[in-house]
Specification:
With 718 residues, the chain is α/β, with parallel strands linked by helices. It contains 28 helices and 28 strands. The structure holds iron/sulfur cluster.
Length: 718
Amino acid sequence: MNLKRALGLDILSERYAYEHDPAHGWVSSSRVADRWVSTTCGYCSVGCGILLGIKENRAVAVRGNPEHPVNRGKLCPKGLSEHHTLAASTRAQYPLLRKDGKLARVSWNEALDTMVTRFRDIQKKHGPDSLGVLSTGQLVTEEFYALGKLVQLGFGTRHYDGNTTLCMASAVSGYKRSFGSDGPPGSYEDLEKADVILLIGANIADNHPILCARLERNPHATVIVADPRVTKTAMLADIYLPLKPRTDIALLNGIAHILIRDGLINREYVDRHTSGFAELAVSVSRYTPEHVAAVTGLPADLIERTALLYGRAKAAFLGWTMGVNHSTQGTETVNAINNLALLTGQIGRPGATPFSITGQCNAMGSREASFTSSLPGYRKFENEQDRAELAGLWNIEASRIPTARGLAYPDIIEAALAKRIRGLWIIATNPIVSFPNYGVLKQALENLEFLVVQDGFHPTPTTELADLMLPAAIWGEKEGTYTNSERRVTKVNRAVGPPGEARTDFDIFLDLAARLGVRDELFPGWTGTRDAFEEWKRVSAGRLCDYSAMTWEEIERAGGLQWGGPRLYEDGHFPTPDQKARLFAIEWQPFPEQPNAEFPFVLNTGRTVEHWHTRTKTGAVAALQTLSPRAWLEMNPRDAKRLRLKPHDRVSVISQRNRVDGIELRVTEIVAPGQVFMPFHFVETNSNLVTQSAFDPISREPNFKQCAVQVERTERVS
Ligand code: SF4
């Protein structure tokens, strides 16, 4: 600090001066924009409308769009500081190719020629399916649509999946099994119209904070939160259900038991619109309140009260997120949730819905238009008519469309480990931090002959391992659409150009298609994402996710359009062969890795409001880093006392696979004795060093939420 500053004579008036903004009044002069670009937040699936302020071609400010129906001007800390991600010092600017062991700058021509040559060589040597692709929930829908065609029809590999499988694959599989199709049936406005809201494994106060405003607008609803940890959302609840980890199926079956026992089901709805009731009734007959109390640790009278509130509700909202999905029984838990909605007819009416609050800003777009677990437009790989229809729309031979989905994300990693996948293309995701059981992943990536990582940021823990790194544009630098959790298609706009030589993902895809000799066939006449949108409208026409009547201009004007309207299945007809939804008899099972004498704690992992996933973006935002600079481990005071640990001690978390050292201890009643919690955002103390390779057999989603660990003081903190 200089002398003038120390004496208080220099008050940094230039930096902190106010200026009058014609649109927003007196604000810091550094935040006065020349123009405001309307767009959609690029972090989570809430899909808040944003105004991005631009001055001299730089993003200088962000404001919540007061006209936008999703957020009505509000933003969470991530959205409020999102403009800082665009000019981060860690933005990737030039293609880099590994030469003599080091990443060196090369031209785009050399980069893309090398990529095509290396991948083609691998496929010639080891077969077309020796190439895998892992994408993201961060691209615009138009890019997902183009990427699916490029991967499956251009590169000719089936093994394409997204990091969305680490997030909401269980919701997708659960919806498909219960209702015949993916697609959350309700809307955010149902949170304002329900009289009972039951949130299961959903910490919306940290992870979807703007949805909490919907709860505030509905003060008469009874809010019930089931979660093993007293999250910020649990603190907002009227009734908190502190169930034991991963006992939610027992609780849901117990509620179904009471609904049937007390005649609180909607028998007419069940008879007309569902199948499978008899099996379900037999199966839940064993889930008496006493049995469920023994499994969940909840008092039997609290289970009864919850069931009666749900069963007597005029309109009941059932919401869930990762506490349900991140489980080896994730899909079945979703089915057990859907069972409750179907038994009571709490679906397709205002306030009444089973509602998966999804993860990334455009995870939904990847579900609709991609080519991973479904064909575009929720068509099925195994359905001949669906394949023929698509082939007709694309003017190609139907035999080029795969008859079964390729490997899911964890199975692509397993195949790389077994050297069946030899080339891998990772797009806008950071598995080194986000994938479970780091040791297995690292070995799998080391086994590859050629790894391409395409990302807006470099270095990340994953780009550092690449043989080729392709710099991509990010949110704020490209145009297209996202779909949020309530099926609202919103407009995303370009406000500034990407840094250095970075290009949009869409441009990269078209350039690769040209080098593969398929550009004219797959993308005839395409120059921009609008061309992809126009084709996607034709491909989605007549499907559940029908975009055919939408235009970019109307989407923009309306603040987003919901495909299917505010609610699906209002008429009780479902897209199944008999038009009925399916009830499932589901048995609760204990989670796979139980605590024992050597590893006595159950480790739960999750998120905090300040950070996004692996911190590639939020780690570059000073305000967010200052608010949440490092990871922590939450432990109950009784356990801390027994282990002679104090708040702020540095501790090690050890599983049978690996250890995380030097994490700061928080001693708190937020977690129950025998459980510990840590956030998963931080590579410096990477929770996925200790998590396990256990996956839902249906959705292939990892069981991130429970593994057995020991905790001890870290003797030396480096
Ligand atoms: S709630 Fe989600 S969409 Fe809204 S500002 Fe925050 S991160 Fe963005």
